[in-house]
Structures are given as C-alpha cells and as structure tokens.
Design goal:
The complex is a heterotetramer of chains A (about 270), B (about 650), C (about 350) and D (about 350). Chain B is about 25% helix and about 25% strand. Chain C folds into 2 domains: about 1-205, no CATH class; about 215-340, no CATH class. Chain C contains 11 helices and 11 strands. Chain C has helices at about 10-15, 95-110, 115-120, 170-180, 190-205, 215-220, 230, 240-245, 295-310, 320-325, 335-340; strands at about 1-5, 20-30, 30-35, 60-70, 75-80, 85-90, 125-130, 155-160, 165-170, 250-260, 265-270. In chain C, α6 packs across α9. The N and C termini of chain C lie far apart (about 45 Å). The chains are: A alpha/beta (about 270), B alpha/beta (about 650), C alpha/beta (about 350), D alpha/beta (about 350). The interface between C and D is large, with 53 and 53 residues.
Chain lengths: ~270, ~650, ~350, ~350
C-alpha cells in the first residue's frame, strides 16, 4: 500500500521563542519527531502543520536542512490554526506533513555572492538558506543579509544575528527612528539602495511583505541585477500541499508543488494572480 | 491568554447534594481544558465558602470562574462581589444553575449528575470567553415621576417627598383620589374610605415638593434610568384654579348634563362641574367634550356668570417636559365592563349594579346620601343578590384570573346592606371564599353569623326581569338544588382589570404587560415592584388585583426602591450591553425597530448602541439575521460553545 | 470482447454481480441520478445524462481522512482509508467516462491519493453510447470525444433498440462480462452493422462548435487580463453548480470537524470545494488573488482549457454540458470560449 | 397583453435620457429556450430585451450585487438602476427597501404584469417533455404556453396551469404594486390554486413522513449554495451557517478569525445540510417574497420553496404580514404588537 499522504506525522513542540509581540505576534517553534519518523528537507520547502481540531496551515521550514534534531517554524498569529499554535505550550503535540515544494538551488550558486533581503516574518523562508550558506561558507563569495523590522523589538532571531555577524555582512534596519539604534533607519528597499551591493556574480534572495518585495525587486534591477539573479518565494492559500485541491495555482503551476521558490524571470512569465 | 478557570460546586446543604453527585461534578470538571481548580463545598455562599472562593482565585491566579449552585438571581451578585474581593473582574464570574434547573427537578442521581456536569461545563466554556467589564456610570436626576393619583400614587408621592425627593404627580382625571375616593367603608374595619383618604389628598396639595398635574397624561418619554425626560400633556385649563372661588354659580347655568363618572353614572353632572366636593385641586373644571363647543357665540353662559373671570375658553393644552430619575406607575384599575355580563342583565337592567356603583349607593356622599335604593324606582330593595366572580375566573368567556378583593368587598356590601336595610335579605353566590388577610376571615364569618347573609355556593346561570323583580336563576351545589330568587337588586362583583390608560402608558414607557394586560413586574417573586425597564416601578392595581393595604404597601415599596436608586450620585449600569460588529451590519434597522428601549440608532448607515439605554435583553440579537450584534459576555460564540459543551 | 445482450437479459447479467455494489441511473425527484440497485431490481437505461457525474464514486463529496483523539495526552490518528467492495456502474455516458482518466491524472501526479485509488481500483464503468444528444448543450465531439467514446470506460454498451451491443474494453470489463456470459449472445455481422450505424448517426447530430481546439489556449493566454471576464461574469451568482456537477472538477477543501469539543475528538474531512466560492483562494490576511467573479470564471475556464492543456496536453472538459444547462443565470462555457476566441 | 416593444422603448428611453445607469432585463440565452439576465447600458441594446414565460430570474438580485459593487468601489456610480420586475420580483425590491438596502429613488421598477399566467417551471416542463429539452417557449393567449421541443421542432400548446411554476399558480399579486410603470393588465381573478396551496398540501402529511421526506432531501443536498446565491434576500456579507463567505478586513483580528463560529460544518451530510436549510428558512421568515428562485436553481430539485412558503404562510396567518407589500412597514421579525399574547421583553 502506498503511503497515506494525508496522514500527518506527530511532532512535539520542544521550544517556543516569542519573536515579536502585538496583535500579529510571531513565535518560533522548535519541533521534534518523537517517533523518529521525521523527514529531510531542502532550503525553501514548507510543511503542512496541524493542530488537531483546528486544521492545517502551510508554514515554511525556517531551520537549515543541516539541523537534523528538530525543525523550526516561525508562525505569525493570523487565524484559527496559527492562533492555536500561539496558545500552545512546550510539550504539546502537533501534526506535520511534508516537506512540500521546490527549493532554492543553492548548489547552482556555488562561488557566487549572495545578497539576502528580508522583511518582517518574511525572513523565515530564507533563514534556512542563510544558515546553510553560512555553514558552507567556503562555497560562496560575499554574503550580505539585509533585514528590516518595524521596530528593533520586532527583529526576529535576534540572538542568531549576533552569531551571523562573524561570517557575513549584516545590515539591519528599522522603519522609524529609535533612540540608540545603531543600524539603518528606514525601509528595507532604501537600505538596499544605500548599501548598493554589486550585481556581479551575485544572487539576490528576497522575501517579505508584498509591497517590500515589489520595491526590492525594482531596486535590485536598478542596481543591475538580471531577472535570473533574483529569487523569491511566494505564498497562496493551500489545503492539500500536493497539487490536488486546486486553489494555490498561479497559472498552470500549483505553488505547493512547483513553488514556492521562483526566480524573478520565472515569476514574470506567470499570470499575476497571487 | 491561557485560560485559568476555577470551578466551585455547591452542595447547598442537601438541596443539590441529595440529587447530584457534587464531588463527581467537581472531579470531572477538573479534567477539562483550562480548568485549573475545581472543588465542592457544602455552602458556597456562606462566609467560609466565599473565603474559599477568594483564596482560590488568588492562589491559582484564576482568570475566570464558575460557581455551580443556585439561580443567578439569587447569588450572582454574592459571588461577583466575592470575585472582586479576589481581584478577579466581577464579569469573569458566572453562575451555573444546578439547583433549580437540575437538582430540584430530577430524582435519578446518575442522570442529574450528568446534567449538572453539562450545565457547569457549558458555563465553563462560556466564562472562558468572557470579557472583563466595568459597570457604566450614569448620572442621576434626583426627582421622580408618579403616574396616577389614586391611593397608590398618592402614597408613593408622599413617601418620596418624605425622603426629600421632588415629585411630579400626574393624574388623568380632574382630581386625585382614584377609585378609593368612590368607596364608602373599607373592609374589614368598616372605617370610612374618604375619611382616611382625604387627609392624604390634602397633604399632596399642600406639599411643596409635589408638582401636581391633574387632567394630564404622559405623552412620551426618552432617556434612561436616572435620566428620563418625560413630556406631559395637560388639558386646557379653561377654569383657572387660582381664581376659582368654588362658588358654584356656573353649574346651574350650564345646559349640558352628562353622567357623573364619580358616581359611576348613577347621577348626572354638568359640563362645568367640580368632580367632587373635596376634589384636589379644589377647582371647577370644564369638560371639553361635553361643553357645547367652547364657543361664546354658542353658549358661554358659565363665563358670563363667573364674577372672578376664572373661565377662559381660549386656553390651549400645554406640554411640559420634566426631567426625572425614576418613575412609579400607579394607573390603577377599572371594573370589567357590565356590558360583558349580558346573562346577568349587566348593562341592561338599571337595578343590576356593579360593585363600585353599590359603593356609591352606600356612600354618604353618593347620589342617595347613603340610602340604599333601586336606581329604577328608588324603592328599598328587600331581597338583594350578590354574584361573586362576575367576569373573573372564567378563562373561556371573561378574565381567567381571580380579582382577589371581591370576596371581601361582597361580604362588606352584604354587611353594609344589612346595616342599612335590617329587614332585607342578602344572598351571595360564590365559588369559594378567599379571605386571606388579617381579620378577613372573621369579617366574612360575621357577615354570615351576625348579619344573616345567605351564602350560596354555586353559579348563577341567568338573571332576567319578570314582574318588576330580577329573577336570579342559580344553583346551590352544596344542597344540590336549583335556586331561584326574586331579587330587587343584583350586584355583580365585577372583575378588576387594568385601567383604560394602562395599555397606553405601558407602550409609552416601554414596560411590558402580562397576558391579562396588567403591568409586568421584572420578576414575579424577587422583583415584584420593578418593571422590566430599569428605573420604572409599579404600584397598585395596575400591576395586579389588590386591596388597599396591599396597594399602600406596594406604593411604599416602589417609593423606597426609587429612594434607594436616587440616593446615589451615579448609577452603575450593567455593562452587559449589546455591541455591533460593524462589518456585518447592513443597516437594515431591524434591531432599531425591535429594541424595546430605543437604545439603537443608525449612525452612518450602521447600527449603534447607546450603552446607557441598553438593558442587554438580546432582542436585537434575536432579530439580526446577519449576526451583526451581540450582547457582551453572551456572544454568539459563547452560546455556540455552550451548546457544543452540552451536546458533546 | 463484443457480445449481444437482449433487453430482457440485462437483468440476468446484473444478477451475476451479486457480490458488487451496482449503481445505475434512476429517475427520482424529477431528475436522473445514480442510485444503488438492490439485488433483483431492474435497471432503467432510458436515461438522458445524470445530474451528478460519476466522479462521486471515486471522489465522494465527503471523505473522512482520519479520526483524531488524544490518548494519554498524545494525539492518536486512525486512518479511515476506504476498503469498498467492487462497484459496477451502469449507464455511464461517454462524456463522463472520458472524465475519469482526467481525474486519474490529477489524483496520481506527483502524489498518489490513496483514498481516490482505494475506490477507483474497485470501480468498473459500464458505458452507454448516446444515440442522440440529450440536450442542445452537448458538445463532446467539440472537445475530442464522441457519443460512443470508449475512453475511461471498461465496457461500452450501445442500445440497438431491442438489444444492446456490449463491448468489453478493459480486462476488468471483460471479466465482468465473463461473469454474465450465459446472458450474452454472439455478435452477428448485422449487429455490428447496426451498432456502427447508430454510432455514425449519433455523430451526425449537430453540436455546438468550439472552433479550433488547439487555438483556444493561446486565446486564453492573450485574454488573461481582458475586461471580457468581468463582463461575462456579470450575472454569475458565484454558486457551486457548474463545478459540483462537472465530471472533471476535483477541487476540495480539508477541515477538522470536532465531534467532541470536550475531549477534542474529531475527524479530518475532505469535502468538495469550488473555485467559484469567494473564500476559495482567500488568504488568512483577507487578500484574495481571485477576489472577483470575473477572475473566478477565468480560473474555471483557464483550468479546463489552458492550464490542464499545458500540464497534461488535453482539455479538462468532456463536453457533457451540465454546467451550461444547469447554470441558473445562463453562463455558457461554449459561448465564453467563443467570445474569448474572437 | 404585454407588448415587449413597449418595454424596449421604455428601457431605451430611460437610458437615452440618462435617468438610469443601466437596465436589468431578460434576453434570449445562448444555451436553451430559457431567457437569461442581461444588464443594458446603451439604449441601442434595448432591442434585445424579451418577455416570455421563461423569464424566470428575480433580477432584484442584481440590485443587491450593484449595491455591493458600488460600496466596494472607490468611485461609486450611484445613478439609479432600472429593473424589469414581475409581481414577485417587485416585492423583493420592496423588502430591500424595507430593510434600507437602498432608497426608492435608486431604482426604477419597470413592472410587468404576469396577467393570467406566469413563468414556467423548468422541472414541470421537463417532466412534460419526458426529459427532452424545450427549444422555444412562448405565451399562447391568456392561458396557454406554446412549446417547441429540441430535436423535434413541432409546436405544442400546453395549458398554462400544467407547466406554470407553483408560485405562479398560487400568486396573489401578478401585477407589481411597487412600480414606476407597469406593462400588461392587472388581472385580479386568477383561477389557479389558492395561496399557500403547496404548503398546505405538504402539511397534510404525517410528521413521520414529513421528516422522512426532508431527511431524504437534506441528504441529497450538494451544498452548492445556489439557493442562497440566487436569493436577493441573502445579501448578508457573511452567512452565519457557512464558511464559504466571511468578512475579513484589514481590521479583522486573528482572535476574531480563530473564534469564528462554525454553526455548521462544510460536510454535506444530512444534519449539517438541515442546519443550513432550516436556518436559511428562518432567516427568510417575513422576508421571503416567494420568487421561487431557490427551488428553481436547485440542481437536485429539493423543494426548498415549501420551507419558505410555510413560514410565509405562518407570517400571513398569524400576523397578516406580507413581505415587501408595504415599504413603510417594519419587518416582521422586528415588530411586535401590544396585544401579542406572549410577553415580549422578558
């Protein structure tokens, strides 16, 4: 008999970090597989997380594939399922299906400079790429991470950023002036223009709010990045995660299977329906 | 926020514990999601019980609690107060009623326990979605309105002024006094009605804190408890009471005679008249409807003869607006119409009278100056039949309820009759005698024993006139035979019904009425003088049939409720009010129409709730097909949660 | 295998399938629909097309994936994979038959859907060729099918008046025929000729043309941003009739249905969903990539005539015409394609 | 008799003079004999308007749609809309006016009297034609409907009463009372069925049988929601019994979304579908104007009209209330009378 693709594996929450507060708070969950039936994943892939009785949500896997002990998910409190996650405690059980979707072609980028541009919770999908790239530091050229949050208290993975600074260039920004803020003040696309990374032999990877992505891509193009040098991930409402339920398609592609990672060149060829 | 709910299951001695396994309820609920504390105790409402609640709140850092005990009407306040003492918002405390709604109505312990569990669980699910709420503070106007100037209204007004409050007393008729003014003697002491009422009426007229408005009616009301605005319409004062010298020069010249309502139609009066010699206010008045047209060209005779110029036909009705903080409604009763009693000759034969007419016959101030005689031929009736329950206790044809006072006043009538006509014979047809009250039973016995009144247990089927007599066809069920009496007079103890204006005033004030048309009390036992609208209280026979002592007590009770209400600078209005969920509202206005308190209005095309006016009754929730309105802490979500907890 | 079955022997054949669930069209509530045939009951094959399509046999409107409960605090999941007895469906119109391989594709692809296949593997489809179109909205031939298409069917029957021509197409079909071999007669040349003639006549009825099928994808691509869509969807009411009745529409929703709110027990359930419903693609944030009726009509048409063609090289439409006939407001997929192609 | 040319001229005039931004009417459909809705914006297009016994739709639905579109639009076009309305349809406009959905001046009601007949019931017609499809359906005199059959173009005249929709047989207001203009004669006496005939018939069945019937119907329901989607009264932004419509705005919090009540699940099983249909029926009590659209569109022929007319009958018999008859009247659900026997606010 074939595997039942709809039957989730059981995961256990082993750590919860409160990343940001507020109405749309973000928490990061570390999840283990107590039945040692976990799965391997690639950078950029997602998993369908369940709170039994509430339902499922597609969430990007925010930990590096190199980390085997647990998977990490950063979840913004948005609706029924995510609220249930936010009410969860360490030790609670959840369901996981996956991994789903394609991946960032990290192997194709050997020897190139990497520019990561993230905003808000949009850092989560590209975080495993950053982590993996840092772990394989010698494979890549210059690595720069741009990240912006509304305020300094909204910065995700704050402690990890400190470690990151040892091996890559980190450019943090906050939207509005704050006393004692050492980094850039202003929006991410502006910070990007300000620092103007070179497009030569570089790949730009961006994720964040739609409006941020729009201006980041405009600015990247202005800096001379070609469409093929720009990568992003997109999201749509998903129910099955396996290209059957019919709702997440952008043109002929089901994002859950063909996406979520697209180069700007690929994305441009699809209908603007996401 | 993580739910930390506490559950407290009360034994209520054996009241609950005899039927419900309270320990099991507490133990089972301890396993429920979010329940961090669950215990039972023998008397939760006792001092140690409340202390345990307060301690448990603090020790377990509760953010919600359910007391599983008796009805919330009994102890919701008790436990909400305890909740506050434990630093838990009072509205995070809910009562699960497992006594009245479970233990008392079941016998099987297993079943009752299961039900108690579900009731409590539903409340737990509800309270877990309760919001912390703060009472809404409302300023008060320290002034009261009394509607109706009968004994109830008079008593309430006087009691209110005793507490230092200003009172507006509104009476529809030209004089205060109401029905009591028409009575001769009162049971069981047979003291003179007017003698005990008149001093009170004079007190009203002399009381500087009472603004007396006769010939006036409440036209409309706005505002809310503590802050009503009442529009009062006063009929045109064609006779200026300040100028009127009570000389009575005007009535002889008046060409119009109409039945005198004060004498229940037994006598006539003129269009210009004084209702009654001791009327308060003491003034003549002009009956606008009877008068030939208020037009000097047509008549104008009374104006001509009035030396002091007290009469002015050009006067117009006036409308004044009064600010009051509370209202007592005491609109009294009327007797059920004689025209309904065709089988007893009611409305057909002049010698078939109703109780009030008989009172007038007995009264020294009445048409016959206290001599009992037949209206038809002024002969003294030698045989008189009283029929009790005339129009009462007859759900098929008339009023379903018992009018309560008729047994007593009929006994009084028969006694008075015997005092006036010692050689006459009085018969009373009755179903049963209801003489509960101090000295009442003795009074009835006396009428039988001392006055030889013949009590016939049975119904009268028909009364008809034959050979100048009223033939009363009845049955004596005790003797088991038919009875025929050739009576000279028949007196029907007509049912009491709310006075004619009661329906109108109930509508204007938006207070409910019961199925019989009497004003509805907020709770039949625990809130007998409160109406369903906050700040409006009930007194007297408009709320239900009652005699004078009861009426006076209720009037005093209503007054003390008003005094208590207006003794504060600010009123705390319950915050469990309706709240509109804007995106869902389509502005259909159904809730606006349905709201009995006028608390909802459309603002920019969406319903908007005036929280001070809202009583949280939920009528709006019921009519909103869009589910766009909720009552706080009784939200749809909470109801859904409760239903699913019960159905699970 | 080809055989002849006289009308009166149909029952005899059906009776040999007593270990199967047998379904056939039945007229009830003023509408033809599939109904379970109890043992010994007659089958009426005089039907037009059924209102519901045969997809319900493999993709029921409600499918429980698994039950969940808590055991010692740990979620315990119990799969509810169906294990049905063999099911035989009579009277499948060829358009519906052609829908089945298209559904197979969807439920196969990268991930095999065990619930679909558990039912599909046990399903035998006995088709009935159409001797004439049932409605002016039939357009099977315009999408590459035919009134006697064998695609997707295990057996094809042709009504020759007093008898059926019965052709076993798949091994599964032949096996079903074998079981009732006593009921069948051998096929004569004249039977073959009669069947051929009926097939030919049935093809000759005029059907609504779609023009050049191969040109449609390009037309749809070009008109993606056309204001035509909003115009054509102007009277659409956003109901689910077109997709729920469609033999190839397969979109679904997955929800948890809690059966005991106190213990948290419940079921994860798949239900039909519908690209015409407003929440179909609505993100939790409220953003909706297909927020208006025009874009939703475009999605339905594009899915069938563009995306499916791009992915699987065939239309996801078999011309049954249900969506046209049953649309309460006259939205007509043929007319839509005509307008887009102009 | 209704002269369709007059309707066309009137509609064209409205558009020409700019008195309306559009006219909602009927035109020939591309798919079958049945007319379909159309929205005219140019006077020249008025020639496509038709009037025949297949003009089934209650176009008031599109007034609701327009109102929703204008509310969502940054540049709303608030000019009035013209609508071709039968008697029942005009009552729908009446209810929408009672419920403040728009104002009287926002709509120009082009009333058409159904005179002695009404519109056909596609299911009855289909039964009549033994499953075959009609290719042409027209009025034939005062009490006749002429029908041509697909694949066999001979014309048959059928007595109207045999194929008219039940609601037309029971109709009490064949001519729209709420109108700016009426075409056709107001026919008072209509010798068909008494009002609520079908509902009364259904009541004459034992409780057990009734339950069995409805269980059967609810079990068949596909939950395609066409009945709700086609109903002009079902204009709620969010339907309380269903998760396919819900309001999410930028201000909608995660908590509100998480706490959204599922009164009924998405599963199309008997109990969930019963909750859906019964709740809908209750929400239409005193609002339903018996246009019969819910029943007409049901692909599996659930006799939904019975549910609604049953409640309409109760409203009429208990409170003499008829939805949409008096646009000044308070809605049934929100009004009470002092003499109502039950205590209202306790």
């Amino acid at each position: 008999m074939t595997d039942n693709i709809y039957l989730p594996k059981i995961g256990r929450i082993v750590g919860i970090d409160e990343e940001t507060q507020g109405a749309r708070a973000i928490k990061t969950f570390k999840v283990e597989f107590p039945n040692s039936d976990g799965f391997e994943h690639n950078c950029g892939q997602c998993a369908m997380l369940s709170m039994f009785g509430k339902g499922e949500s597609m969430i990007s896997i925010a930990s590096s594939p190199l980390v085997k002990e647990y998977k990490q998910f950063s979840i913004m409190k948005m609706g029924r399922v995510t609220s249930a996650f936010h009410a969860a405690r360490v030790g609670d059980f959840i369901g996981i299906r996956g991994p789903y979707g394609n991946q960032f072609p990290l192997d194709d980028w050997k020897g190139r400079d990497l520019v990561f541009i993230g905003g808000g919770v949009g850092l989560a999908p590209i975080w495993p790429v950053i982590q993996t790239a840092v772990a394989r530091r010698e494979d890549f050229g210059k690595i720069t991470v741009f990240y912006g949050a509304r305020t300094s208290s909204n910065i995700m993975y704050e402690a990890d950023f400190e470690k990151l600074k040892a091996s890559v260039e980190v450019q943090l920004s906050v939207d509005a002036p704050e006393e004692g803020w050492p980094g850039y003040t202003g929006f991410v696309p502006a910070n990007l223009m300000d620092k103007a990374p070179s497009p030569d032999n570089a790949i730009a990877i961006t994720c964040g709010p739609p409006i941020m992505i729009k201006f980041v891509i405009q600015n990247l193009q202005a800096l001379g990045f070609a469409d093929e040098q720009i990568y992003t991930t997109i999201e749509n409402k998903m129910k099955c995660g396996i290209g059957k339920c019919g709702r997440c398609n952008v043109g002929k592609d089901y994002v859950c299977v063909k996406g979520p990672v697209y180069s700007w060149a690929e994305l441009k060829s699809l209908p603007q329906e996401y | 926020m993580t739910k930390r709910t506490g559950v407290f299951v009360c034994h209520c001695g054996k009241n609950i514990a005899a039927t419900v396994d309270v320990k099991k309820v507490a133990q089972e609920l301890a396993k429920d999601d979010g329940v961090v504390f669950s215990e039972d105790y023998v008397y939760m409402c006792s001092d140690p019980g409340q202390t345990a609640v307060i301690d448990a709140i603090k020790d377990n850092d509760l953010n919600g609690m359910v007391i599983s005990c008796c009805s919330p009407t009994l102890h919701e306040k008790t436990f909400r107060d305890a909740s506050e003492l434990g630093d838990l918002n009072a509205f995070q405390c809910e009562i699960a009623n497992i006594r009245e709604q479970c233990a008392w109505v079941h016998k099987d312990m297993e079943v009752a326990t299961e039900k108690a569990l579900k009731i409590t669980r539903a409340s737990v699910r509800r309270v877990q979605h309760n919001q912390a709420l703060e009472p809404i503070g409302v300023p008060v106007t320290r002034r009261a309105l009394v509607v109706g100037g009968g004994i109830a209204g008079i008593q309430a007004a006087l009691d209110l002024t005793d507490a230092g409050l200003d009172v507006v007393l509104v009476e529809k008729q030209a004089t205060i006094g109401g029905n009591m003014l028409k009575l001769s003697e009162t049971f069981p002491t047979l003291d003179c009605s007017q003698c005990i009422l008149s001093p009170k009426m004079v007190s009203v007229s002399k009381n500087p804190k009472i603004t007396l408005m006769t010939e006036s009616e409440v036209e409309s009301i706005s505002g809310f408890v503590g802050n009503f605005k009442v529009k009062i319409k006063k009929k045109a004062a064609f006779v200026d009471p300040e100028l009127c010298k009570l000389c009575d020069d005007c009535t002889p010249v008046c060409p119009v005679a109409v039945p005198n309502e004060y004498d229940v139609g037994l006598t006539n009066r003129r269009a210009i008249h004084i209702p009654f010699a001791q009327a308060i206010p003491a003034s003549f008045t002009l009956d606008e409807e009877a008068c030939l047209g208020l037009d000097p060209v047509v008549c104008g005779k009374c104006e001509e003869v009035c030396d002091v110029g007290a009469i002015d036909y050009d006067k117009k009705p006036t409308v004044t607006e009064e600010d009051v903080g509370a209202i007592v409604v005491a609109t009294g009763f009327d007797l059920y119409g004689m025209e309904h009693m065709g089988e007893f000759g009611g409305g057909r034969y002049p010698d078939v009278l109703d109780g009030l007419q008989f009172e007038r016959l007995c009264s020294a101030s009445g048409a016959t100056e206290g001599h009992i005689m037949r209206p038809s031929d002024h002969k003294v009736p030698k045989e008189i039949v009283f029929i009790q329950c005339s129009g009462s206790r007859d759900p098929e044809n008339h009023c379903a309820y018992c009018s309560k006072i008729c047994c007593m006043y009929t006994a009084k009538h028969a006694t008075l009759y015997k005092h006036h006509v010692p050689d006459g014979q009085a018969y009373i047809f009755y179903i049963d005698i209801r003489s509960g009250g101090k000295g009442y039973e003795e009074f009835v016995q006396r009428s039988m024993e001392n006055d030889g009144v013949i009590y016939l247990r049975g119904r009268v089927s028909r009364v008809y006139e034959k050979d100048g007599k009223l033939k009363v066809m009845g049955v004596d069920t005790l003797a088991g035979r038919n009875v025929e009496i050739n009576a000279d007079m028949v007196v029907l103890a007509q049912a009491m019904e709310p006075s004619k204006g009661t329906a109108e005033i109930a509508k204007i004030l938006k207070i409910g009425r019961d199925k019989d048309g009497f004003l509805a009390e907020a709770h039949p036992k625990l809130k007998p003088v409160e109406s369903v609208t906050a700040g409006i209280y009930l007194a007297g026979a408009a709320q239900g049939p009652k005699d004078i002592p009861e009426t006076v007590s209720q009037a005093g009770a209503a007054a003390s409720k008003v005094i208590a209400l207006l003794s504060k600078d600010q009123l705390a209005h319950s915050p469990t009010v309706a709240k509109v969920r804007d995106p869902w509202c389509t502005g259909c206005e159904m809730c606006v129409d349905a709201c009995p308190y006028d608390a909802i209005a459309l603002v920019d095309g969406k319903a908007s709730v005036n929280e001070v006016l809202c009583e949280g009754c939920g009528s709006c929730v019921g009519v909103c097909v869009r589910a766009a309105i909720d009552v706080k802490n009784v939200t749809q979500l909470q109801i859904h949660e409760m239903i699913s907890a019960i159905m699970a | 295998m080809e055989k002849i079955l006289s009308q009166e022997k149909l029952r005899e054949w059906v009776d040999t399938l007593d270990d199967c669930e047998v379904h056939a069209p039945a007229f009830a509530d003023s509408v033809w629909n599939y109904a379970r045939i109890e043992a010994g009951a007659d089958i009426d094959l005089s039907h037009t097309n059924t209102i519901g399509s045969i997809k319900t046999f493999v993709f029921p409107q409600r499918e429980v994936f698994f039950r969940f409960e808590k055991k010692d605090g740990v979620p315990l999941l119990t799969s509810t994979l169906p294990d049905p007895i063999p099911t035989v469906v009579f009277g499948v119109r060829p358009c519906d038959g052609r829908g089945m391989p298209r559904n197979d594709t969807v439920f196969n692809k990268e991930f095999e859907d065990p619930y679909y296949w558990a039912r599909r593997d046990k399903l035998t489809l006995i088709g009935l060729a159409c001797n004439q179109p049932h409605s002016p909205n039939c357009f099977c031939q315009s999408v590459g099918g035919s009134p006697h298409s064998e695609e997707g069917l295990d057996i094809l029957m042709t009504d020759l008046g007093d008898r059926f021509h019965v052709k076993g197409i798949t091994a599964k079909g032949v096996e079903i025929m074998e079981r009732g071999r006593d009921a069948f007669d051998a096929v004569s040349d004249s039977d073959q000729a009669d069947a051929g003639k009926i097939h030919e006549t049935s093809r000759s009825y005029p059907q609504r043309p779609l023009g050049d099928l191969d040109a449609i994808p390009e037309a749809l691509r070009e008109n993606f941003d056309s204001p035509l869509w909003a115009d054509m969807a102007q009277h659409c009411i956003g109901c689910g009739i077109c997709t729920f009745l469609c033999p190839t529409c397969h979109c679904f929703d997955i929800n948890d249905e809690v059966t005991s709110p106190t213990s948290g027990e419940g079921e994860r359930v798949r239900t039909w969903d519908n690209c015409q419903f407003p929440d179909f693609t609505m993100h939790t944030s409220g953003h909706n990539p297909r927020g208006d009726l025009g874009s939703r009509l475009r999605q339905r048409v594009n899915h069938k005539f563009l995306y499916f063609v791009e992915n699987h090289n065939t239309q996801q439409c078999t011309g049954c015409g249900r969506c046209i006939t049953e649309c309460p407001v006259g939205i007509d997929i043929v007319a839509v394609l005509e307008r887009v192609s102009q | 008799m209704v002269n369709v040319e007059e309707i066309r001229d009137f509609a064209a005039g409205l558009l020409e003079r700019g008195e309306v931004k559009s006219v909602l009417g009927f035109r020939h459909g591309s798919a079958s004999a049945f007319a379909e809705p159309c929205t005219l914006t140019e006077a020249d297009d008025a020639a496509s308007l038709v009037w025949d016994p297949t003009c089934l739709n209650n176009l008031a639905l599109y007034l609701v749609k327009d109102r929703k579109q204008q509310a969502a639009s940054k540049t709303p076009d608030t000019r009035p809309v013209g609508i071709v309305a039968k008697g029942c349809d005009s009552r729908a406009v009446g209810v929408l006016l009672q419920e403040n959905y728009f104002k009287r001046e926002d709509v120009v009601v082009i009333g058409i009297s159904c005179e002695g007949t009404g519109v056909v019931d596609p299911k009855k017609l289909s039964n009549k034609l033994k499953g075959r499809t009609a290719s042409r359906v027209t009025f034939d005199g005062a009490d006749g409907i002429s029908v041509s059959v697909y694949g066999d173009e001979t014309e048959t005249v059928i007595p109207a009463r045999e194929v008219l929709a039940d609601r037309c047989l029971e109709c009490r207001a064949a001519a729209p009372a709420l109108n700016n203009v009426v075409f056709g004669d107001s026919v008072e006496a209509r010798d068909y069925n008494e009002p609520f005939h079908a509902a009364k018939e259904a009541e004459n069945v034992s409780e057990d049988e009734r339950w069995a019937t409805w269980e059967h119907h609810f079990d068949r329901c596909l939950r395609c929601f066409a009945c709700r989607a086609v109903c002009p009264m079902c204009y709620c932004p969010e339907c309380v019994v269903d998760s396919t419509t819900f309001v999410v705005t930028l201000g909608t919090s995660a908590k509100e979304k998480a706490n959204r009540i599922r009164w009924c699940e998405r599963s199309a099983n008997t109990s969930e579908s019963a909750v859906y249909h019964l709740t809908r029926a209750i929400h239409l009590a005193g609002r339903c104007i018996d246009c019969g659209e819910c029943e007409r569109v049901c692909p599996v022929n659930i006799p939904l009209r019975l549910l609604n007319t049953k409640l309409e009958k109760e409203a009429f018999e208990m409170f003499e209330y008829q939805a949409g008859h008096d646009i000044e009247q308070a809605s049934l659900l929100s009004s009470f009378r002092d003499e109502d026997p039950n205590s209202f606010i306790r």
